[in-house]
Amino acid sequence: MNLTAPVGIIGKHHTAPETSSLKSLTQSWLDQLCSMIDGVTHAIVLMQERHDHDFIQSACWPHSGDTPPVLLDTAREAITTRQEVTRPEVQDGGDRVTGMTIACPVLLDSHMSGVVVVSTGQPVDSRGLPGQLRAGCSWLALLLRRESESGKHYLATMLEMAAMFLESRHVQPDDSGDPVITRIIDTLGGHTGTDTSTLLKQIHDTVRHSRGDDAGCTGLPVAAATHDGTAQDIIRALEEDWFELHYQPKVELETGRISCMEALLLMDHPGSGLQMPDDFLPDAAEAGLMPAIDDWVLRTACHQLRAWHSAGHDNLSVAVNLSTAGFMQPRLVSQLAALMDETGIRPEQLEIEVTELTLMDSIDTAAGVIRKLNEAGIRISVDDFGTGYSSLNYLQRLPISSIKIDRSFTGFITSDTDIATIVRGIIAMAHATGLEVIAEGVETGAQLAFLRKLQCDQFQGYYFSGPLEPGDALQLLSMEATAGSLLDYADQVS
What we know:
By secondary structure, the protein is an alpha/beta fold. Helix content is 44%, strand content 20%.
């Protein structure tokens, strides 16, 4: 069965020095995948134990009987081309599709380490099935990443992925004997420090409300085996500390002092250099990794705030932007409560920023989350206000504390009378409803003067400072403490 290419296939009746744990894991995973996808008649998983070795059949479904040749033929084509392969089955003498065989690569750091092949005995949605299979392969790839299995971020990601996988098949918290859960624990090497039942309950705490868009999609994250390993880069960024936070100050009108530092996420990729959020967050969202990233940002920012407090800046707050998936996850409030206990910062010293589009996407769910955060003492700010479709009247039903005027408005308030009128109206209406207003993107003295005249409560932008590394942010805080007012200092040096 060996290919003429350097890498071949060994059938299921052959053996290779592959670990029993890998076989057990892939078999359990394949059993669950086939139970979740309608119409599957046969499936196999082929894996490489090491780079440049033959692909070994690690799992099959069903467990008995011979593997249809079409599965191995399709696997061979996928290995040769390093791409997803789809083979429709057509009824003899006609053009009606009666089934489908699909092979999907399993990528680890852009290296093709395996292939999953499924066959159906009935017509299926040509978009839904490949999407389900890609999602499953992405999850399997995460399971197989053993290099950093003891890392907390790896564990958090695994729990998140497992939650979505298990929820889709309605596993209950008392299903402590579930084979997938058992394999997850084995794969993690016991680093959870918990028994199976407890881990399953933890997993259920991570279940998100978001679902996939593809027809027939199970809700598993579609991590793009075809995306050149971008999703895997994000996993490595969490594991290997590629992410970093810079901080941009918010300056109060009333005191002229820095009231808050907003945390801004960057990724220092070892091959590509420093990347902005727009370069990697869309892929992270598609791969279902935003809750894990949000968790890292929250934890890092709160610990940094604690360090600034220890340096004498006790009244400082920190603002963190959360994604839709991170904001809507059920465990957010309990997670933040534990983080407050861990760092010793007060709830009112943490501000959560969410876009108005996040709120309007599911207003009822968002309202429930905001009320719980508000009850816990954590402030909520609506970011990028004015770029979506909400109104202040609509937002009144939410216990938010402030809105941020988007920089696309701030940049034209001194040159466009219509925009100036809009900003004036936003500030007036916000104050009438008891909301504070933060203007971002303040870059000139003229913009600042206009906003100060309207009694805008806080300002943020390069007129004061761009995003700073933690050490530089501390220097700015120390300088402000000496100067007494960053507003006055900025006016002097501008």
